[in-house]
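Changelog-linked ticket: zinc ion example.
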Amino acid sequence: MHTTLLYVILAIVIGEALWAFFLGELNRKSWSDKVPERLQDVYPEDKFQKQKQYRLANYRFSLISSSFSLLVIFLILWFKGFAWLNDLTGQITDHWLLHPLLFFGIIALVSMLISIPFSLYDTFVIEEKFGFNKTSPKVFITDTIKSLIIGAVIGGLILSLIIWFYNTAGQLFWLYAWIGLSFFMIFFSKFYTSLILPLFNKLKPLEDGELKVAIETMSLKSGFPLSNIFVMDGSKRSTKANAFFSGFGKNKKIVLFDTLINDLSVDEIVSVLAHEAGHFKLKHIIRGTILGVIQAGLSLFLLSWFVNHPAISHALGVIEPAFHIGLLGFGLLYSPISGVLGLGLIILSRRQEYQADSFAAKYSNASALQSALKKITSAALSNPTPHPWFVFFNYSHPPLLSRLAYLDQFN
Ligand SMILES: [Zn+2]
């Protein structure tokens, strides 16, 4: 027998998939046939056609993989697959911590196994065909294994922490879990570059020379506390280019993809970094962290209200309510709320991008940033004319043409 709440969960899962499909179709239809005038220098006609083909291939493939995941989750919910797994793992162990860990561990492992064929096709067929892929099968396999282990360690730790607080602190567990999780988030973003990144990539200090001097001059001028500049072997996996900062407080590190150094001029690289320094000086990073902490607190508070409600366990077909089943059901029900919160965050993020662009125009050079943005976007074959609705709901950065127009005022 299916409960009303199960139908609500199914409606959420299907509604979200249909909404994503609707936006995707709008976006597909908004692809222009001609190269926009401002981009004619970075998108020769043949490259533009290649870009359209690449987007189309990606879009079709994402339709197939998301339809497949929708079908899988629908069947699992309809045939009470989670209740079955709960019984099965409950027979192996009924330990308060081991049972939930085993339950979620199996779900994570199975969903990863299902995603592997899709990821293989994406990397070695689509990305390969369009000349992006530099990943060797060996790198792919070691990446997969490392991600699995890191995911198991980090996911397992967070889950254990929440369950442990639930078992020891009772109704106020969300408060303790919130404090614990916040420390974890701050620790993680502080040590990401020194702990996690080296597991996947090699980082080398940037050699002395024109580029290093130019970056240091810009940092000094804009008051950015720079301690180290690293070059990362991004070309090991992809031809796409990027750069980012990491670290809190003083001692900031810059990580440049080697692809960025190969494709961009010194002025262009400095302007990209001035944009990133802008995010730091304008306190976007610290605000982002605070918002993340507030969002986690809100989610945990709501979780503590609903997790013990028997209706959630019943909806998933489990007769005897259990914390981990409540957690899973809550996750499914919470997804529209987190979607709305996420929308607020990307609207804010797009505003901050303009602010960082204007900071970069002040401390480096607006026209260098414009040409850098054109090169990076065209190298990634990004869609130059996305649909405004698609941008509103999905883009964390304003589309290229809007940023170019915004930067015009500083020229
Ligand atoms: Zn930015």
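Closing comment: Example verified and attached. The chain has a mean pLDDT of 90. Strands lie at 203-205, 226-232, 243-246, 252-257.
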